[in-house]
TrEMBL record:
Domain (Glutamine amidotransferase): residue spans on this chain: 310-539
Keywords for this protein: ATP-binding, Glutamine amidotransferase, Ligase, Nucleotide-binding, Pyrimidine biosynthesis
Gene Ontology MF terms: ATP binding; CTP synthase activity; identical protein binding
GO biological process: 'de novo' CTP biosynthetic process; pyrimidine nucleobase biosynthetic process
UniProt record similarity statement: Belongs to the CTP synthase family.
Chain ranges of the CTP synthase N-terminal domain: 2-272
Species name: Atrichornis clamosus
Alphabetical list of Pfam families matching this protein: CTP_synth_N, GATase
This protein's GO CC annotations: cytoophidium; cytoplasm
Protein name: CTP synthase
Class in the EC hierarchy, top level: ligase
UniProt-listed Enzyme Commission number(s): 6.3.4.2
The keyword RNA-binding is assigned to this record: no
Biological or metabolic pathway of the protein: Pyrimidine metabolism; CTP biosynthesis via de novo pathway; CTP from UDP: step 2/2
């Protein structure tokens, strides 16, 4: 097993996740089996209870793990399926060690950060690196490990110490450290500054890890003189300094790395049994990147949510839309609309914001209402759903988006004016969305219906079934506490809102479709989590096809994309 540790310096959010994913993609293109581990030094057991504004979206895995969004990057880039144990947190490690201490595994010993916590980290990494993540179920050959945060953070120290020890345990030919740093370019001088990188590498070396590669992030391409300066002051060869400037799309990053000789370096440094040249997989990435940059036709989608100030809050949704747009040769114009700005209360407080939000919504080719929690912004989402339904605008509702589509239909088509979800109004007389009985509302962490579940189509006359290739069932990832009230579904079906998919027992409503509408679909699951660059998610693809007016032609072709 070969281990590649990716650390970061200067600032967090520098792109370590994309770089780690891109390195994995390059090695996979050379015919190697690659897995990935993300280490988050926070004390939370998992990411499930975070606000999206803290660390971006919560990504859900097949096994129900609620994890950091970087695991989503790994899955999309490498086309693998990871597990909850591929995300290590300080909380998980300490819980593991404390449980062993209570069990008596350390009887007679003082349990300390070194060696007990550091040993637990190393043991976890070695065990998880062996777990198969590809469809062929073979053991991986390379494990890419990303250490979150920046070097020097207090909470990250035990992990840095663990890897300082681990480099000797794994042996030099099996362990490689890549340090990602920022090269800022102040506007005042326009000069690219290397001092932050020098200080960051010095701090890393002071903790016992020497970088084998320094990946420099910058806004613009870095000059050769800067490369030579970093090489001289950071004790590495010039070819060990890699530049990644801001690019038009993340699809370009693996190509930039490959162009700077990273395959040849890894082959020599880790003694890998590979050719110097990548295979067809990287050629596909090159073609995809070139196609992405040449797109001329534009499709605009309005994303109506409440976490719109930070794009990472809907990272997987954005990627799923982008994959679908690319598949049909359209450039995606994603307009983020804060749902509270569509509400009447905003018109009274700030009429300019209100009218700007509605202007965006009205000019969009399609409307998407993603998942979420809490009552804030729900009335604005209901307004957007009503607009999509009455004006025949293509619409996709995901999780809460589907539940609110049911609430909107109940209020405006069934005339149940107080229809609501028990999440927002526990005393409503028409509870069209109810909490699931088997889940304990006392504990918030890990108590939802999580992970991959089967959804069975109950009719052949379903647009989503056709988009999924006319399969009898699909398996998608879930994350919800509430569900559509199964006792009231017949009232909706009589008026044309069809529940075309349900769970294996037939009790839980999973997919809605509205009759006599170009595309009005809601899904209880999160299809964005399984979307891949070369395998777009069918519900999102359907939205893009409907928004560009090509859905019926696509269905007539037997769900084949035009060349």
């Amino acid at each position: 097993m070969k281990y590649i540790l990716v650390t970061g310096g200067v600032i967090s959010g520098i792109g370590k996740g994309i770089i780690a994913s891109s390195i994995g993609t390059i090695l996979k293109s050379c015919g190697l089996r690659v897995t990935a581990i993300k280490i988050d030094p926070y004390i939370n057991i998992d990411a499930g209870t975070f606000s999206p504004y803290e660390h971006g979206e919560v990504f859900v895995l097949n096994d129900g793990g609620e994890v950091d969004l970087d695991l989503g990057n790994y899955e999309r880039f490498l086309d693998i399926n990871l597990y909850k144990d591929n995300n290590i947190t300080t909380g998980k490690i300490y819980q593991h060690v404390i449980n062993k201490e209570r069990h008596g595994d350390y009887l007679g010993k003082t349990v300390q950060v070194v060696p007990h916590i550091t040993d637990a980290v190393q043991e976890w990494v070695m065990n998880q690196a062996k777990v198969p993540v590809d469809d062929d179920r073979k053991e991986p050959q390379i494990c890419v490990i990303e250490l979150g945060g920046t070097i020097g953070d207090i909470e990250g120290m035990p992990f840095v110490e663990a890897f300082r020890q681990f480099q000797f345990k794994a042996k030099r030919e099996n362990f490689c450290n890549i340090h990602v740093s920022l090269v800022p370019q102040p506007n005042a001088t326009g000069e690219q500054k290397t001092k932050p990188t020098q200080n960051s590498v010095r701090a890393l070396r002071g903790l016992g890890l020497s970088p084998d590669l320094i990946v420099c992030r910058s806004a613009k391409p870095i000059e050769m003189a800067v490369k030579e300066k970093i090489s001289m002051f950071c004790h590495v060869e010039p070819e060990q300094v890699i530049f990644i400037h801001d690019v038009s799309s993340t699809y370009r990053v693996p190509i930039l790395l490959e162009e700077q000789g990273i395959i040849k370096y890894f082959k020599q440094r880790l003694n890998l049994p590979i050719d110097d040249q990548p295979s067809d997989l990287l050629m596909k990435w090159k073609k995809m990147a070139c196609r992405y940059e040449r797109l001329l036709k534009v499709c605009s989608i309005a994303l109506v949510g409440k976490y719109t100030k930070l794009s990472d809050c809907y990272a997987s949704v954005f990627k799923a839309l982008e994959h679908s747009a690319l598949a049909i040769n359209y450039k995606l114009d994603l307009m983020y609309i804060d749902s509270t700005e569509l509400e009447r209360s905003t018109e009274a407080e700030n009429s300019v914001k209100y009218h700007q939000a509605w202007h965006k919504l009205c000019k969009a080719d399609g409307i998407l209402v993603p998942g979420g929690f809490g009552i804030r912004g729900t009335e604005g989402k209901l307004q957007a759903i009503s607009w999509a339904r009455t004006k025949k605008k293509p619409f996709l509702g995901v999780c809460l988006g589907m539940q609110l589509a049911v609430v909107e239909f109940a209020r405006n088509c069934l005339n149940w004016k107080d229809a609501n979800s028990t999440e927002f109004d526990p005393d409503t007389k028409n509870p069209v969305v109810i909490d699931m009985p088997e889940h304990n509302p006392g504990d918030m962490g890990g108590t939802m219906r999580l992970g991959k579940r089967r959804t069975v189509f109950k009719t052949e006359n379903s647009v989503l079934r056709k988009l999924y290739g006319d399969e009898m069932f699909v398996e998608e990832r879930h994350r919800h506490r509430y569900e559509v009230n199964p006792e009231l579904t017949h009232c909706f079906e009589e008026k044309g809102l069809k529940f075309v998919g349900h769970d294996t027992e037939g009790n839980r409503m999973e997919i809605i479709e509205l009759e006599n509408h170009p595309y009005f679909v809601g899904v209880q699951f999160h299809p964005e989590f399984s979307s891949r660059p070369m395998k777009p998610s069918p519900p999102y693809l359907g939205l893009l096809l409907a928004a560009t007016g090509t859905l019926s032609a696509y269905l007539q072709r037997g769900c084949k994309l035009s060349p």
